[in-house]
DNA sequence: GTGAAAGCGCTAACAT
DNA sequence: ATGTTAGCGCTTTCAC
């Protein structure tokens, strides 16, 4: 900037004014400065700018589990769209469901002085963020609640959705329903399993541990679990898959066997309507989840010290069972 | 940091040394400083650190078209993995295929003093980046080449893949092959179309404009285009879809009609093996594409002024036609 | 081994 | 309307 000022024969401050499009600068000086900027290939250093002017790095951090998962990719997209409306960019970091990594990444993002944080938590304890929040970095949690910290949160109605899914299968007359879930360690899985059990209990069905399969990490494992359940005595006549990766594996195995068991899957996915079996899903609006979280974050950035809010978004059953 | 120094009864510089884990500091002072850091909730400001120490923001920029597209999400994931190995985070920005947006975002990333740039270009002219490159921000282009700028580039063998796809259909005896593409404005589409035409020409087939459909943006448009081609006189007996969104639309329409036309699609996708029709695809290793680009970028960041390289990665035909 | 002073590139607060 | 000065929070240089 000093060079530009010298080149244009004006003071450093005038260059600053021109670069920041401040009013009240003679057109002639503006032109001279811009010419010098062009000639010297000057680029304003936003780090220095942010450092001096207090805060506002125009950057927000997004912490998710895994960007290659379409659910998180959608969240990243919407968050970036909302951020763009506030002239901000997104630093996206993936925790891979590892609480240690999560904490390191969140601390790193804070050290970079992001204006705010959008977090899908992996761990159980986020009290380490309290210092940062008090120092003025707003945090909004989405999809899962924070642990040990009162903060803005946007969630899905996992419990209600799971209830609706099981009730749908009960309504079709099923009495033995296999439930498959990723990991009981994940909040959304616990909620969905809870909702399913509520519906099963309300229908007067006894708890049967053979009909609940935990630790189903991917489609292949799901297919194996289905095979095992079907080969056991008194097999299920329907399956409730608690996420879409599991759903795909269930469908694959049933199709492979020409089985006529019914399937309801939690989470819709892009090609669900092209699956070789009729498939009913519990759908929700991922974009809306991200939009609400991002807008809440920017509201907090603009105006702090509001009471934390928790928003719960509805799910809906999409019946593709009639084919 | 001043506060911490006062609190610990040491100089500012000693705090800096401790925070940066510099050697040659008495253990007693280290302990006192760390205690003060904890007590005051001190967090090193990485902006100030980067500003003073010259460069190294430990941040790289990734410019893609659309993060919700699984192809780009995979690139973002791998880039983040490689970056993590160099203690760096990723700022991901989406141009939405808009060259104006692309230029604004790239300039913004440079203003934030990212250490390097990973770019899937949308526009044709990237000469505006020359100044930044000369100022020491390395840039690696991937999936598509840069315009008006000599730079490191990692590409796929689009042309060879398309040739192989068409040759596969010719080998099955097809002589009327419908080709559907997104937009001739996109580099990869031009290359793939070029490869397809090379194979068709080599087989002695005349050019027939009715068999090439441009502007197929999404599965619905693809389905409509297929319907129109099939309803025309002398319809195609096979289709070559130049990307996976088109492939999905083609499959959907053929399945809907119980058509027995063959399909080859460029790009593999997650559920391609569960499609209701036999589907052969031209696959490639997206992770490898991103890995090579990211590692090249970090090599350039570590050691500049090397001659720009262009790497072309192979594609392979995955035959799922026998079902 | 530790500290004082200077300054990275910029902007806020004040002159002029 | 323009320029001068101080200083954001940190690291570098060099003296102790």
UniProtKB/TrEMBL annotation, chains A, B:
Stored SUPFAM superfamilies: lambda repressor-like DNA-binding domains, Periplasmic binding protein-like I
Location of the HTH lacI-type domain: 1-53
Domain of life (superkingdom): Bacteria
GO terms (molecular function) for this protein are:
DNA-binding transcription factor activity; transcription cis-regulatory region binding
Instruction: Name the PROSITE patterns for this protein.
Output: HTH_LACI_1 (PS00356), HTH_LACI_2 (PS50932)
| InterPro entries tied to this protein | HTH_LacI (IPR000843), LacI/GalR-like_sensor (IPR046335), Lambda_DNA-bd_dom_sf (IPR010982), Peripla_BP_I (IPR028082)
Which keywords accompany this UniProt record?
DNA-binding, Transcription, Transcription regulation
Protein's UniProt name = LacI family transcriptional regulator
Q: Which organism is it from?
A: Rhizocola hellebori
Gene behind this chain?
A: lacI_18
């Amino acid at each position: 900037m000093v060079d530009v000022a010298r080149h244009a024969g004006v003071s450093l401050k005038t260059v600053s004014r021109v670069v920041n499009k401040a009013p009240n600068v003679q057109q002639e000086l503006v032109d001279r400065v811009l010419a010098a900027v062009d000639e010297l290939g000057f680029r304003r250093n936003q780090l220095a700018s942010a450092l001096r002017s207090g805060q506002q790095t125009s950057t927000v951090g997004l912490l998710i589990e895994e960007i290659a998962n379409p659910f998180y990719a959608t969240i990243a997209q919407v968050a970036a769209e909302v951020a763009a409306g506030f002239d901000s960019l997104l630093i996206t970091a993936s925790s891979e469901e590892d609480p240690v990594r999560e904490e390191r990444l969140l601390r790193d993002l804070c050290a970079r002085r992001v204006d705010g944080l959008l977090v899908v938590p992996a761990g159980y304890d986020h009290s380490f963020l309290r210092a940062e929040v008090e120092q003025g970095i707003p945090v909004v949690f989405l999809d899962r609640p924070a642990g040990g910290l009162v903060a803005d949160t946007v969630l899905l109605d996992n419990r209600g959705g799971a209830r609706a899914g099981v009730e749908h299968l009960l309504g079709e007359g099923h009495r033995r329903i296999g439930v498959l879930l990723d990991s009981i360690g994940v909040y959304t899985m616990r909620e969905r399993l809870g909702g399913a059990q509520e519906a099963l209990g309300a229908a007067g069905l006894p708890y049967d541990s053979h009909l609940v399969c935990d630790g189903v990490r991917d489609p292949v494992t799901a297919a194996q679990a289905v095979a095992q359940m079907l080969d056991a005595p008194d097999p299920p006549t329907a399956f409730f898959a608690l996420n879409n990766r599991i759903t795909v594996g269930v469908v694959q195995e049933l199709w492979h066997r020409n089985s006529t068991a019914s399937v309801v899957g939690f989470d819709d996915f892009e090609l669900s309507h092209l699956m070789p079996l009729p498939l009913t899903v519990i759908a929700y609006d991922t974009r809306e989840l991200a939009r609400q979280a991002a807008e809440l974050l920017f509201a907090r950035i603009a105006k702090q010290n509001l009471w934390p809010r928790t928003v719960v978004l509805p799910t809906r059953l999409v019946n593709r069972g009639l084919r």
